[in-house]
Amino acid sequence: MTPEYQKLLKITDVTAKKLAKLHLNTPWEVALHLPLRYEDETHITPIADAPVGVPCQVEGVVLHQEVQFKPRKQLIVQIQDGSGSVLFLRFIHFYASHQKQMAVGKRIRAVGEIKHGFFGDEMIHPKIRDAENSGLAESLTPVYPTVNGLNQPTLRRVVQTALESIPLHDTLPDELLGRLKLPHLAESLRLLHAPPPEYTIRQLSDGTLPAWQRLKFDELLAQQLSMRLARQKRIGGHAKSLHGTGALADKLLNALPFALTRAQGRVLAEIRADMAQTFPMHRLLQGDVGSGKTIVAALSALTAIEAGYQVAVMAPTEILAEQHYLKFQQWLEPLGLNVAWLSGSLRKKAKDAAKAALSDGLTPIAVGTHALFQDDVQFQNLGLVIVDEQHRFGVAQRLALKNKGEDVHQLMMSATPIPRTLAMSFFADLDVSVIDELPPNRTPVKTRLVNSLRRAEVEGFVLNTCRKGQQVYWVCPLIEESETLQLQTATETLAQLQTALPELEIGLVHGRMKAAEKAEVMAEFSAGRLNVLVATTVIEVGVDVPNASLMVIEHAERMGLAQLHQLRGRVGRGAAASACVLLFAEPLSELAKARLKVIYEHTDGFEIARQDLNIRGPGEFLGARQSGVPMLRFANLEEDLHLLEAARDIAPRLIDERPDIVEAHLGRWLASREQYLGA
Ligand code: ADP
Ligand code: MG
């Protein structure tokens, strides 16, 4: 925080540092730091009537106080009120000052939740106030999100100072507010930070209060404005117009053992039209697992290469990047094109050679992980960046890509459909092409939920499948806490299957293996020399072996829906009837039950993504977890759809007619968050 702001808010350096941890660096950000919840200290509940498990305030005279040492050191205080009832107050952390404050005979107030304790009804660590010298609160008490060492009274004081010291006049026109039935900003902020006595906790908590609606609308509007401005900036920017001759692409098409589907042809035309423009393409190629996005990417890359430019193809994991590398090599080398490979695990010498070939322009295309976008990688004339599974990259990586690729065309690919609300908000500056048709001769995948106690039956099923000449994936349970444990489990699974099914060739691929070792095992499996591939979830995305017709997933209850859908999509790519066996272990949490039900009932990726959003919210989809910065603090895309729609409708008009309003609004809302909203 700047010294001027500190002075304005009357705070010390220490407090300013704490506020910075909450991402509060300007008085506006402080004013927009809204309470998490409220406490009611406006009235006193007789102990006899006090509900159990609900926060309340009681008042009484201290009857008894003692420090006990068993089972651990604690302070026990007994109070009694006018109703004659007694209540125990228990403190595990306390100081001498607490003992003094609650000396026998003192009248005190306690705020907390009553529980049925060992001695009788008790409150653990209630908030204590001296009842003789302090009056009742006049309004509900806000409780803010905070960090260690920054207490609620300080936060309240800083917030109130912020509200008094900044101009709170409305930036939005009255006509608009009237139409949307939204109150003024000043009024809304004052109400939420210090609600008048007539409001109840319930009214303030469910987000439907007009004051909350106003803040949610402002937040959504800021997002819409910044997305639209980003789009305008892009369209006003420059990129090389890439017109391919078609020479290379036609050669590849002729060499393929299949013809493009109608949907693939259509999206390819959309991508080519974008690349011919003089401003950067920003297009998402969306298609369910197995819909054939890779060939579309390769043909798009050829268009750029025909036009004399370089292409970078980036994937989120090493194994997926490598699959792409092998595919691109297989397709492009016969056309006389060199494909470079860049990943984190590459030896320095090989990496230097690849980098030199790219900076000299000798190599027209590079495939790799985010190592492709490290500062020391220079392209001679990069024209197109293709990013697979874009949403799996962290925000920092997306920003790096964005900075490197200001003036290049970008093609993103994803099998996870963007729900409508996200397409309207976070992804508003993305043009979308959808492959809505699977290649012919795909067989639907039968999904079975099987209790892991019946593992032997599943092993029998594996044997039958392999005897028919087909192949099997066996996915090991996900162990998030420890990679070592994960590896151990994978090795045990391999040993167990080898013992149970001695006539089969079984291979193992896991995250700790060197890239070359992984590639070798994958190649063995692709060539059909392994019947079964035991894998940790590294095979999650992109792997493509059409002869594999059975997928077994252990501890499926631990996995997310998108992951399960991706995994299941690895089978059903050939002519044989395919199945996916989801092994689960009891007991199942409600969340796990809900997920397994969805994956069992649905095969359509779009529907699964929609249900997923319902179950867990959009955070993970956006990569918000990695960034640590909440993208939307107040609004909820599903619940506040009407506000999102209103913001989307009004944003273009404000940009055209009222640039002053746009600037003021974004200044208040986006000071330090702007870069994240567009990433
Ligand atoms: P995804 O969209 O999940 O990335 P892939 O690009 O890996 O899917 O394609 C899945 C499989 O379908 C690959 O084996 C690919 O060669 C094959 N494929 C792609 N397009 C067609 C098509 N038009 N006809 C037949 N097979 C196709
Ligand atoms: Mg793919």
UniProtKB/TrEMBL annotation:
Family statement: Belongs to the helicase family. RecG subfamily.
Ranges of residues in domain Helicase ATP-binding: 274-435
Entry keyword annotation includes Nucleus: no
Catalysis: reaction(s): Couples ATP hydrolysis with the unwinding of duplex DNA by translocating in the 3'-5' direction; ATP + H2O = ADP + phosphate + H(+)
One of the Pfam families matching this protein, by short name: RecG_dom3_C
Protein name: ATP-dependent DNA helicase RecG
EC nos: 5.6.2.4
Species of origin: Uruburuella testudinis
Cited SMART domains: DEXDc, HELICc
InterPro entries registered for this protein in UniProt: ATP-dep_DNA_helicase_RecG, DEAD/DEAH_box_helicase_dom, Helicase_ATP-bd, Helicase_C-like, NA-bd_OB-fold, P-loop_NTPase, RecG/Mfd, RecG_dom3_C
PANTHER family with a match to the protein in the record: ATP-DEPENDENT DNA HELICASE HOMOLOG RECG, CHLOROPLASTIC (PTHR47964)
Enzyme class of the recorded protein, top EC level: isomerase
Domain Helicase C-terminal: 457-614
UniProt GO MF annotations: DNA helicase activity; hydrolase activity
Keywords noted in UniProt: ATP-binding, DNA damage, DNA recombination, DNA repair, DNA-binding, Helicase, Hydrolase, Isomerase, Nucleotide-binding
Role noted for this protein: Plays a critical role in recombination and DNA repair. Helps process Holliday junction intermediates to mature products by catalyzing branch migration. Has replication fork regression activity, unwinds stalled or blocked replication forks to make a HJ that can be resolved. Has a DNA unwinding activity characteristic of a DNA helicase with 3'-5' polarity.
Domain of life of the organism encoding this protein: Bacteria
CDD domains, A to Z: DEXHc_RecG, RecG_wedge_OBF
